[in-house]
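User: Predict structure, ligand magnesium ion.
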Amino acid sequence: MSGPYDDVLPTPYEVLDKRAAGLFNGTAKLDRLYVGCRWAEGPAYFPAGRYLIWSDIPNNRMMRYDETDGSVSEFRNPSNYTNGHTVDRQGRLISCEHRGRRVSRTEIDGTITTLAETFHGKRFNSPNDAVVKTDDSIWFTDPAYGIDWDYEGLRSPMEQDGCHVYRIDGKTGVITRVADDFVRPNGLAFSPDEKKLYIVDTGATHVENGPRYIRVFDVDGDKIKNGRLFATCTNGLFDGLRVDEDGRIWTSAGDGVHVYDPDGTLIGKIHVPEVVANVCFGGINRNRLYICGTTSLYAYYVLVRGNKTF
Ligand code: MG
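Assistant: Predicted complex:
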């Protein structure tokens, strides 16, 4: 393709509930910004530089989309098979590394710091996705996809006793386990008021009729409690998700992006021609939804803004 917007697809949205009527932009198209990944994941938008970082997991590299000119380049190779990314409140890149089996942070000077590598003396499985809370704590999931096969990391024995969810304290760096009743915890996101934490379970990849749902928890300081079913995926599996400023959940699925009202109702979809793994809001006004869809990076302008986390 010769330009960033040459490869556009028809207006893709679907309103399933009248509450979604004002979400989608009828004149915007689904932009395919890049093709050439094996498994695009982990988008994170940096508003100060107007660029997006994402992972191409099986190719062991991270990519960078420059919003100012539409160019795409390789940001880091090898990447330790990074998966999920986010941006902390100081503007630094937080990365979940499959092969590194750690959560790392890229500092302002470019050096990489390990934030979480072991728990009770044992290595993590393969951190998958992370989110930063306004108290600077980092919450992350630790399924085993990066040690199950070499394709997404390095096949290795599991040292933890399962696939759990953890929190890194923002001041002390102390790591605590906050949930231990998941099969394969995956994407996660806070509600705008940070009173709720949504966590995906993709256990159906490993357990017949296993979880393919989002659960929601009440946040109680540095803990979560009262986990309950929020939504079950109606096409494929959820993976990564983000929340908009009004608390709606925008999540990946087999046929595109699914949008949920905070009451758990599926209210709309953005149809994408590839399986979607993750999304994030970006653009100057946080109204551009970036979509990682298998081989491609897509973007679609919506009529709402993302929550002030990236
Ligand atoms: Mg994931």
